[in-house]
Design goal:
This protein is α+β, with helices and mostly antiparallel strands. The chain has a single domain, classed as outer membrane lipoprotein receptor (LolB), chain A (Clam). About 15% of the residues lie in helices and about 50% in strands. Strands 7-8-9-10-11-1-2-3-4-5-6-12 form a twelve-stranded mixed beta sheet. A hairpin with a 2-residue loop joins strand 7 and strand 8. The longest helix is centred in the first third of the chain and has 28 residues.
C-alpha cells in the first residue's frame, strides 16, 4: 500500500513537471526569434574556479549568435564557430555536437527537451516571484557531464528565469536570465561566420 502511494505521488510530480516544461517549450517554439541577456556564475571550490560573466544571444530557428564574456559563438544551424579571443582561435564543429562546454542560448532554452528525466521539486520564491523548481536528471549519465540541472520557472508567466547545472567534476554553473525579448527582427546575416572579421585568428576544425 505504501509503495503504491509513493509511486502515485512520484508519478503525479513527474506529470506536473512535464506539463510545465511542455508549456514552456510550446511558448518558446511559438516565437520566430528571441533575444536574451544572462549572467553566468561558474564555481568549483576544488580547483579554485570562481568566475562571473555576462552574455547575450539571438536565436532564430536553428540559428544563434551569442557572446559570453569576450568570446563569441555563431551557428548557422549546420556548423558552429566558437571564437576564443584569448587564444585568437576559432573552433569549428557540427551544430549537433553534444560536447559543448558552454551553454548557448538555444540550448539553455530547450535543454530539458531531450536526454533528461524531470522531477517536480517544489514551489519557491525568486526575486519575490513565485516559481516552479524542477530538477532534470540525465537519462544516460555516462554520456554527459551533468549530474543534474535545476530550473526555476515563473508560475504566472511560464518563463525560465534561472538554471543551475551541477557537473561531475564538482563545478556549479548558474545562469540567471536578466532580459528576454520575443520576436525581435534579426537578419540572417547575423548567423554567418566571416573569418575576415577575425584577422589573425586560426580556424581549428573538429
Amino acid at each position: 500500500m505504501l509503495f503504491a502511494l509513493l509511486t502515485t505521488i512520484s508519478y503525479a510530480q513527474d506529470s506536473k513537471s512535464q506539463g510545465i516544461l511542455n508549456k514552456l517549450s510550446a511558448k518558446i517554439k511559438g516565437h520566430t526569434s528571441f533575444y536574451l541577456e544572462f549572467s553566468a556564475y561558474v564555481k568549483n571550490t576544488a580547483n579554485g574556479t570562481n568566475t562571473n560573466q555576462t552574455g547575450k544571444g539571438w536565436v532564430k530557428g536553428q540559428k544563434y549568435f551569442a557572446t559570453y564574456g569576450e568570446n563569441t559563438v555563431i551557428s548557422n544551424g549546420l556548423k558552429t564557430w566558437t571564437v576564443i579571443k584569448d587564444e585568437k582561435a576559432v573552433y569549428e564543429s557540427d551544430a549537433n555536437s553534444s560536447d559543448d562546454e558552454m551553454i548557448n542560448p538555444k540550448k539553455l532554452m530547450t535543454i530539458w527537451e531531450t536526454g533528461f528525466k524531470n522531477k517536480y521539486k517544489k514551489e519557491g520564491k525568486l526575486n519575490n516571484q513565485a516559481v516552479h523548481i524542477i530538477d532534470l536528471y540525465p537519462k544516460n549519465p555516462a554520456s554527459v557531464q551533468y549530474k543534474y540541472i535545476t530550473l526555476y520557472i515563473v508560475k504566472s508567466s511560464t518563463e525560465l528565469k534561472k538554471a543551475i547545472l551541477k557537473t561531475k567534476d564538482g563545478t556549479t554553473m548558474t545562469y540567471v536570465l536578466t532580459k528576454f525579448t520575443a520576436n525581435p527582427t534579426v537578419d540572417d546575416s547575423k548567423f554567418v561566420f566571416d573569418i575576415k572579421k577575425y584577422p589573425g585568428y586560426k580556424v581549428i576544425k573538429d
